[in-house]
Specification:
This protein is an alpha/beta fold. 27% of the residues lie in helices and 25% in strands.
């Protein structure tokens, strides 16, 4: 009798937990609990993006309807489950986020990831980074425009999307006090590809679980203790720091679209606002904050704003990588094609130059000839060129 009672209680607890952290069938399909909307799009299901046939390493991909383009940008959208589920890709806000981006010409990818029971942090972010590398490694097969891959997520999926945005320049083992983690990982066959994402959307995400009391009340979250190995933030602050998207913030991070409801009783709205403020203070450009009156979920009325945000970041990146210029004197100007910086209309003059990173540290210096400077050796990020009295910001 005792075993039966414990089993029933566990089912009730799991149902309540799932509802609170993102399992909401009414937000899938056509918004009424069925899959009519998403099923009108061509798709491939259960693709193994790591190569180990694990349930937590399967993904579904949906393609926009034929618009005459061979390649399309990508939005990855991650389900919410308090990191407890490894097979909920079919319940990933497909009737809201999914249909909105497909209609806008984006490829939609819904991945599974390993659960807390499968593996502890940073396994979950290792999975999503492996997914991005897989997409780049199979770009031709799936018609992916690798110049723009964005990530989105609801609740714990929003947390993973946010960490993807803030950790895109984090390589190797990252240490915080007594705790260390390899955020990138080495899963899959495409470790030579980049896990870089160009933008992120955070819907009600617990981006820094240490802020769960920011509203002055207990938001009732406990899975963050489990995912770092069964230790709370007071006892193991360094482990919890490595779990938090805010730990990795710097000015080179991807822009983030933050949407959070004032009626959210699971993750308080102030956590989303604090995340946005942290990004602003660090100098991360083009971030947006969209507070609304809803609860813990994707606010369907904001999916149009999400698409506008993604399109804006795409356009800005395209402008920064092909043909950006800044006037100097006369008819001369600095131009940049993504690989070479030079002074256009300069046939003979040579100028001293300095290239610094966002911290101000000079990382390249020399003499700029009319042929310009090849910057292909630089890693991806934001840099500043100073030459002949001009300062020029560029994105690699």
């Amino acid at each position: 009798m005792k075993k039966i009672l414990l089993f029933v209680l566990s089912l009730l607890s799991l149902n309540a937990f799932s509802q609170g952290w993102g399992w909401n069938p009414g937000l899938n399909g056509d918004g009424a609990g069925n899959q009519g909307g998403i099923n009108s799009y061509k798709s491939e299901k259960d693709i193994d993006y790591v190569g180990d046939n694990a349930t937590g390493h399967k993904m579904d991909i949906y393609f926009p309807k034929d618009d005459g383009n061979d390649k399309h940008p990508v939005l990855i959208h991650i389900y919410g489950s308090a990191w407890m589920m490894n097979n909920m890709k079919g319940s990933a806000d497909q009737g809201t986020v999914g249909v909105a981006v497909l209609e806008a010409g984006y490829i939609l990818v819904n991945p599974n990831h390993r659960s807390i029971s499968d593996a502890k942090w940073p396994a979950q972010i290792n999975d999503i980074k492996a997914l991005v590398r897989f997409l780049r490694g199979n770009a031709e097969k799936y018609g992916i425009d690798t110049s723009f891959i964005a990530v989105s997520g609801f609740s714990s999926g929003g947390h993973l999307a946010s960490v993807m945005a803030t950790s895109r320049n984090v390589k190797g083992v990252y240490t915080k006090g007594s705790a260390s983690a390899d955020i990138e990982g080495d899963l899959g066959r495409y470790t030579n590809e980049s896990s870089w994402v160009d933008a992120a959307c955070d819907w009600s995400g617990p981006v820094d679980c240490r802020n769960k009391h920011c509203a002055g009340t207990d938001a009732g979250m406990a899975p963050e203790d489990d995912i770092v190995g069964g230790c709370n933030a007071q006892s193991c602050p360094d482990r919890h720091a490595l779990l938090s998207a805010t730990e990795y913030i710097d000015a080179t991070d991807a822009p983030v679209f933050v949407a959070h409801g004032s009626s959210d009783g699971t993750v308080p709205q102030c956590e989303g606002k604090m995340f946005f403020d942290d990004l602003q203070r660090a100098g991360v450009e083009d971030c947006e904050y969209h507070p609304h009156g809803g609860g813990h979920g994707v606010e369907g009325s904001l999916t149009g704003d999400m698409v506008k945000f993604l399109n804006k970041i795409r356009a800005k990146k395209a402008a920064a990588s092909v043909g950006v210029s800044i006037s100097m004197s006369g008819d001369q100007y600095i131009c940049y094609d993504g690989e070479v910086l030079k002074i256009c209309n300069n046939e003979e003059n040579q100028y001293d130059y300095f290239i610094s990173d966002v911290s101000g540290k000079v990382i390249m210096t020399g003499v700029m000839t009319p042929e310009g400077i090849n910057i292909s050796s630089l890693s991806k990020g934001v840099y500043f060129l100073r030459t002949n009295g001009v300062s020029f910001k560029f994105i690699k």
